[in-house]
Amino acid sequence: EGCEWEGELESLKQHGGRCPFELVDSPYSCGERVQRRHLDQHVKECVSMLAQEVPKLKGVVQQQGDQIKQQKDQLKKQGDQIKQLVEQDRVQINQQGDQIK
């Protein structure tokens, strides 16, 4: 089963853009190539598949957001610790400078 088009060679390109048997890319970036005549069915299935994936992806995004928040909190604590160490070093340097005078 395939295209049985017959016609002038000059019309082949025009036919190719309408041929129901031509392989076309899915409009949903799923990587699938389907015959134009099956594109409507593929779109329905592809959209259904994507609709099933959305809740999973939402969960992944939420989990990553939680991880980012934890890392942000940890970095803030480390930043505060560094500030304390810098302040302690500044105090010690000032004290040592006072002793030298």
Model description:
- With 101 residues, the protein is mainly alpha-helical.
- Helix content is 66%, strand content 6%.
- The chain has two helices and two strands, in the order αββα.
- It has helices at 12-16, 39-100; strands at residues 23-25, 33-35.
- Strands 1-2 form a two-stranded antiparallel ribbon.
- Strand 1 (23-25) and strand 2 (33-35) form a beta hairpin.
- The protein is rod-shaped and about 105 Å long.
Short description:
With 101 residues, this protein is mainly α. It has helices at residues 12-16, 39-100; strands at 23-25, 33-35. The protein contains two helices and two strands, in the order H-E-E-H.
- Give the strand order, joined by hyphens, for the main sheet: 1-2
Tally of individual helices: 2
Topology pattern, helix = H, strand = E: HEEH
Overall mean confidence score, pLDDT: 88
Gyration radius, to the nearest Å? 32 Å
Low-confidence segments: none
What is the helix fraction of residues, given as a range? 55-70%
What is the overall shape? rod-shaped
Distance between the termini: 99 Å
Number of strands: 2
Largest sheet: 2 strands, antiparallel
Which descriptors would you attach to this protein?
101 residues; mainly alpha; two-stranded antiparallel ribbon; 2 helices
List the helices and strands and how they pair.
Blueprint (H helix, E strand, L loop, with lengths): L11 H5 L6 E3 L7 E3 L3 H62 L1
Antiparallel strand pairs: 1-2
